[in-house]
Amino acid sequence: MIITGAGQAFCSGQDLREHADVLASGAEPTATVRQHYNPIITTIMTMPKPVIAAVNGNAAGAGASLALACDFRVAARRASLLMAFARVGLAADSGASVTLQRLAGAAKATEFLMLAEPVDAEHALAAGLFTTVVAEDEVLPEATRLAARLAEGPTAAYAGIKAQLLFSATHGLAESLEHEAQVQAELGQTADHRAATLAFTRKERPVFHGS
Predict the structure, then answer these.
(1) pTM (2 decimals)?
(2) CA-based torsion, 109, 82, 15, 5: positive or negative
(3) Helix spans in the chain (H)
(4) DSSP tag of 87
(5) Is 193's pLDDT higher than 70?
């Protein structure tokens, strides 16, 4: 699955003019987060297939969180990330407090969230927030090539890897080891595993079918 922006930006986050109207009306200001953003982030991070963000431009606030929730981020050289929440007196939402720490570590997560300064593509790449950085006109083609590579690969194993990484982020060593063993036991019964093992012994290239 590939997610990209329709215009010059990847995603600029919540419309603050709309948000100001909500505040003026006295309505619950975080309803959008719970009702819309959180379900999207949950779907991306728990779905059994890899998700690629083709970051074609700036990603700010919840838009940056959306990119970070994906498994891969192919970015244009002109792209940037801005954890803009603190600029309007807010803390992180849309999973940023989770994904930033997983990708860049607690110290960098604190820096990006509290200082709320734009992070250009090269710095984002160095910090582990982008997977690769390419020319602007290569973002979607590169993301498409990556998607094609993944689609031809062991998709059941990819689903297992996503599940393992998500589980281990919130569990200890003993629990994570057991979860790994459970996932391996399931994957060990797949036709893909048997065929790939046989292909290895024959020094052939495996062909995966996702089962």
Answers:
(1) 0.90
(2) negative
(3) 16-25, 31-32, 38-46, 62-69, 96-104, 106-115, 121-126, 139-151, 155-168, 173-187, 191-201
(4) G
(5) yes
